[in-house]
Amino acid sequence: MSADAAEIAARLGKARADRTPISSLSAELTGFDLGAAYEVQRLLRREAGPLAGWKLGVTSRAKQAQVGVHEPVRGHLAAEDGLDLGEPLVVGRHIQPRAEPEIVFIMGADLAGPAVTSSAVLAATASVAVGLEILDSRYTDYKFTMPDVVADNTSAARYLVGAAVPAAGLDLRLLGVVLEHNGEVVATAAGAAALGHPAAAVAWLVRSLAAENEGLRAGDIVLSGGLTEAVPVRAGDVVVATADRLGSIELGCV
Prior knowledge:
- The chain is an alpha+beta fold.
- The protein has 6 helices and 13 strands.
- The protein has helices at about 1-20, 35-45, 60-65, 120-125, 145-150, 200-210, and strands spanning about 50-55, 75-80, 80-85, 100-105, 125-135, 155-160, 165, 175-180, 185-190, 220-225, 230, 240-245, 245-250.
- Strands 1, 2, 3, 4, 5, 6, 7, 10 and 11 form a 9-stranded mixed β-sheet that branches. A 4-stranded antiparallel β-sheet has the order 9-8-12-13, with no helix packed on it.
- Helix 4 crosses helix 6.
């Protein structure tokens, strides 16, 4: 798959650079599965420059059942894709951007291994924050299979992380989250929407990385999975994510 993986990675990289979507890879490639897709993702990661951390996708049990998978998927976060508080999202640099709220983990210690649990994640976590992930699929009309989206680094584009709050004493399952779009509440959720507990999602990530002899490092940020449906954004829009005890972050689009 190596030569094919390099070609696919180049196609996806060009689609992102040119802001021009492509059709589903699975529709034209025989036997394109998750293993092959993660190989493509690893090649894209080599070109991404310094990494800030990791992200999770399909952490909702209902969504997993809907798309026919039994576990989440993961991607990487390029440091250069982080947005500063107050920095606008330039919509024209993307194909079809959407925003979704997340609970973000900031790791205080390295964490690796095939048997890591939620408790170990919480013990290794320095702080948490409310976040917004900007998704941008490189596939036409967001039409893809799970291998497609994994190859596309789980639709990663940009991300915004709010002020860090100590994780001790917080029940992340019960944290209420509100997503506002142009002043209107468009979705609400609780932390439990991410695999029953956001820390469980991060534990899955660590176990998944262990299969490739990798893990989390102190200072890494982890987007633990979208808690609501993602809302499409256009120039002039304002998106606000608010989480109990974590505060709010606002993203303007230009």
